[in-house]
Amino acid sequence: MAPWFKYSGLEYKTVEDKEFDNESTDEEILTPKKRKTFSLRTLLAFVGGLAFGVVLPMAFKSSMFPKKHPVASRDGYYATKVVNGELIEGTQCGDSWQEAKALGCIYDKMASRWYAPECFDKESFDAMMMEPGTNFTWFSDFEHTIEVPAEIAQHGEFELLYPLYNFHKIHCLYLWRKMHHSLLNNLPLDDDLMEEDHTVHCTKNLLTWADPTVSEVASIAHAGRPFCRRNPLGVMPLELV
Description:
This protein has about 240 residues and is α+β, with helices and mostly antiparallel strands. The chain has a domain at about 75-240. Helix content is about 40%, strand content about 10%. The strands form three sheets. It has a five-stranded antiparallel beta sheet with strand order 1-2-3-9-7. α6 packs across α8 (about 195-205). Keywords: Membrane, Transmembrane, Transmembrane helix.
């Protein structure tokens, strides 16, 4: 008797069966396309609903809770200032020399500015006062006819004075010296000195030093009270420098 084998993986079909398999109805042809379209529409609807569910709450939150913008403030001589949208900490000595004095600020006659104690660079100031030509004559009028006592000028108890022109040049040299010292030692630095326009102004001023007629021009000194940044580079973190 011949051995019996079971071929479970194969299926025997007659010629008629194969011909029947090749035939298909309209319904059988259309069904796959309908399913494909249905799946794509379902996917698009799901993605659209998901996006709507994410965007709508965000828009609602944005409208109900708008982003707060930083606001400058002042407490004594401690102050904050908004720079490029960022809140910068520092100091500022009020709105008048009387207020600056009452707050305990220090007047720097070489800078012609009132500074909070932490912003006053005593080392640079003392070193500059050892240089020749730092004793100036001050006047209360543009024509230099009314001289002002040195005590008033040196203590900053004024809003505006007219020193001789040599003060202007030495003032510029001092501020550059102070700026360099502050940057190297990570000391607070006032915004007046950080203005590029001030450096350009001082450069043009010093370029006229050799002109003998310039000494006849009046110079102006304001007892200013600029904002002084604790971080001299402002919003830039020092660890990135």
